[in-house]
Amino acid sequence: MTDFINAINGPIAINDLNKTLMHEHLALGLAAWESDTLADNGTRRDVVARCVDIIQELQGSGYSTLLDPCPNDIGRDIELMGEVSARTGFNILFAVGLYDERLAGTYWKFKAERDPDAEQYIADMYIREIERGVRDTGCKPAVIKVATGLAPFSHFESVAMAAAARASVATGVPITTHTYGADGEKQLAYLTDRGVSSDRIIIGHSCGSNDGQYHRTICDGGAYIGFDRFGLAHHNSDENRISSLLSLISDGYTDQVIISHDCVMNYRASHVGRGRNPPTISPLHFSKVIAPKLLSSGLAEATLDALLIDNPRRYFRG
What we know:
The protein has 318 residues and is of the alpha/beta class.
């Protein structure tokens, strides 16, 4: 058990985490985004200003913290997170990790294929960032990111997951995962078989599935379950997410649900047309749209506090 967690600009007390969103992105860019010379990325000032505006809106609604679990290979921007946090006083937590087979950087897939020591190399990189900081910044990640496509997991994904398990066991830092709304129970089994305690794992994007048994299998396995794409209609409907969430709460799983949106405030280059993409969804969508619907269904304010305050604290505390 720990009383502090690493934020972008230094350790903070876990008890100081008030309303927290557990899966949002200040910036994201698919591998090789820098090579798109037609893309309009705006100026650094534009990018920072957009993030500051959104963060200040969150502060106005009582939020204190967000986790940006962007992996190393798809646009993680330590300097951006640090500047935005310094300007706003908002807690920004970040991740170390690699993305899935489909979208990961070619460098890492090549390394996993050709280097017999790739698993240990990746684990060493994760541990080095967690214990000493990213390069010479001193900034230390709060979580390890794992990402897979649908099972069976690829060789690269298996190597990266095994490295994440090694690093988590060595440092005590928890894991959050990316799924496509399926096979989260297989991720959970893979990680726990390698020594990671299930209560140190969030199975992400589980709200992409409407299968209540799938949700319960993850929770019964002891993990947290990510209802972290509220507002993203192309992955599922909010009506389905609300129905599944209320069912989990009714069945006694309130303490294991994590809430967020998977908002991207700034895309690096653009994978839709030539221009910059706007934020995919407001990170206030849950508070402004979903929470009133939950309350009108009879959910108590205290349950919302459990989802947004108590559960993130418990996950980080261990």
